[in-house]
Amino acid sequence: MAFIEIVITHFAYSITSLMFIVVLTLAFVYMSRFAKLEEAWLGIIRTPLNTRFLSAVLFGMIVGLVASFCIVLVGIPLDYKAVLYIWPLAILLMLFNKRYLCLSYAGGIVSLSSLLFGWPDVNVPSIIALVGILHLMESLLIWFDGYRDSLPIWVKHRNVETVGAYLMNKIWPIPLVVLIVPEGILQAAEGAVAMPGWWPLFQQQPGVEVLALFPIVAVMGYSDIAITQSSRGRVKETGFWLGIYSLVILILAMISSRLYWVSFIAAPAAPVLHELLIILGRKTQLEGDPAFKAPWRGLKILEVMPSSQAEKMGMKPGDLLLAVNGRDVNSKEMLDEILMEYPSYAWFDIKRENNDIVVEHKDYQDGIHDLGVIFVPRQTTRHFRMDETSSIIKKVWEKVRKRLK
């Protein structure tokens, strides 16, 4: 019980720190930008920004607490000096591509530099282990929360002119408690407890007898697009493979804490395998068979708006709307023409996978005019353009060049 109390106490320090407040502010700004994109694309914001923000904070705190217990139980010491190198490098890499903010890249580079050149002098296995645990937590966040508020869009595809897709863009502030080797002003905290005989599982450096708990703050983000599957299917696949990646990295880190030469495998494996996951995932989405193509007959449902008539009737993304009141519908204009009459009773013929179903709506007072559904368009000049580079430096340079002209 004393062990749990000490971890929770230091976790409380993390969520009340100035750094956590700064990260919360940055996360709110990031989420507000995505909400504005949703409003520009759909015309509305489906879920209030405050609700999204509080949900992300709650998920981040839960995962952060779980990660903190994992770090302490395994006994992974974090060299405090390593943070002073990793975070600035991660921010620098983010200027070239925002996904490089991930610790797997900065942690891998710092570890390789330490192994090859002896600078900076850091504990490489502990850095790699921290990358593994944080990505394991990220895989859980993606699995359970990554699909929420995904943005339905349509994009150009190499095989089909226009296809429906989902854009996922999430960020989670993560308060953490880590183990450090106390030195200088960072002395061991009061209230030390005796750990079990099997602790730590992670091999400690020679001469390290005392470890202290220290609160820090991390940020996890998830940006992806689902073209060949639904947003739920995509996040489950991504979360699964990211979990496998995390376990591989953790195993390499554990072995390298006992066999020094394995560090030369673990350090490059962290960024290389992570980048490989992203490349292969994007390749499958861009080159695979789209799940939401405009059909030759009927209208393909891409998204059902919350609290809409369609949601109340049980319509779902992926459904194929074939007819309304016995009249075939093969375009949005045909559907609008039928609903312009404000029918008080309407039945909708739908094909869901291989099943034909009928859903009904009755409103004898106002009738029905708007289903609240986004369909995959057959023809459109409006396509979402993915920014492949996401380079802040490139964007700034383009703005400067335009001003100079």
The largest sheet is: 6 strands, antiparallel
Q: How many extended strands? A: 11
- Count of individual domains: 2
Whole-angstrom Rg: 25 Å
Describe this structure as you would to a colleague.
With about 400 residues, the chain is α+β, with helices and mostly antiparallel strands. Strands 6, 7, 8, 9, 10 and 11 form a six-stranded antiparallel beta sheet that branches. It is built from eleven helices and eleven strands. Helix content is about 50%, strand content about 20%. It folds into two domains: about 1-285, no CATH class; about 295-375, Pdz3 Domain. Strand 7 (about 320-325) and strand 8 form a beta hairpin. The chain has helices at about 1-15, 20-40, 50-75, 80-95, 105-115, 125-145, 230-255, 265-285, 310-315, 330-340, 390-405; strands at about 75-80, 150-155, 165-180, 210-225, 290-295, 300-305, 320-325, 325-330, 345-350, 355-360, 375. The radius of gyration is 25 Å and the shape is elongated.
Write the layout of secondary structure elements.
Blueprint: H1 2-15, H2 18-42, H3 49-74, E1 77-78, H4 80-94, H5 103-117, H6 124-145, E2 151-155, E3 163-180, E4 212-226, H7 231-256, H8 263-287, E5 292-293, E6 299-304, H9 309-313, E7 320-324, E8 327-328, H10 332-339, E9 345-352, E10 355-362, E11 373-375, H11 392-404
Parallel strand pairs: 1-3
Antiparallel strand pairs: 2-3, 3-4, 3-5, 6-7, 6-11, 7-8, 7-9, 9-10
Helix pairs in contact: 1-3, 2-3, 3-6, 4-5, 5-6, 5-8, 6-7, 6-8, 7-8
